[in-house]
Amino acid sequence: MKFIFPQNYNFKVKFLGLLDYPSIILNFVWWIIIYIFSSLFIYSLLFKLIFFIITCFPVFLLSLFGFHQENIIYVFNYVLMFYKNPKIYLYKK
């Protein structure tokens, strides 16, 4: 079977149709950093779990839903570029 995609269709490979692979890698790196930090400073398992959920769940939700189907890595890049030089993005007519 051959499928014909229109030229303006943006085809992205995603894991299970939900997350693209750079977002998954970013989430895993963030989870590893938070896990190492929590294992060094927090001793109670309940507090580790609560800290892990509070710090990792918002990043996961942003990568899952995103901003208008935009990759979370690109969004962070845009925000950093804006804070670096905000006058470039000011548009007046």
Question: How much strand content do the residues show?
Answer: under 5%
> How would you state the average pLDDT, rounded?
79
Q: Could you give a short account of the major beta sheet?
A: 2 strands, antiparallel
Q: How are the strands ordered across the major sheet? A: 1-2
Proportion of helical residues: 55-70%
H/E series? EEHHH
User: What's the N-to-C terminus distance?
Assistant: 50 Å
Structural class label: mainly alpha
Structural Rg:
18 Å
Query: How many helices in DSSP terms?
Result: 3
Low-confidence sequence ranges: none
Outline, from the CA principal axes? flat
List how many beta strands DSSP finds.
Answer: 2
Task: Tell me what the structure shows.
The chain starts with 13 loop residues before the first strand and ends in a 9-residue tail after the last helix. It has helices at residues 21-41, 45-65, 72-84, and strands spanning 14-15, 19-20. It has a two-stranded antiparallel ribbon. The protein is flat and about 55 Å long. Helix content is 59%, strand content 4%. The model has no long low-confidence stretch (mean pLDDT 79). Helix 1 (21-41) packs antiparallel against helix 2. The chain is mainly alpha-helical and 93 residues long. Strand 1 (14-15) and strand 2 form a beta hairpin.
Describe the structure using short key phrases.
two-stranded antiparallel sheet, 2 strands, 93 residues, flat, mainly alpha, 3 helices
How do the strands and helices of this protein lay out in sequence?
Elements: E1 14-15, E2 19-20, H1 21-41, H2 45-65, H3 72-84
Antiparallel strand pairs: 1-2
Helix pairs in contact: 1-2
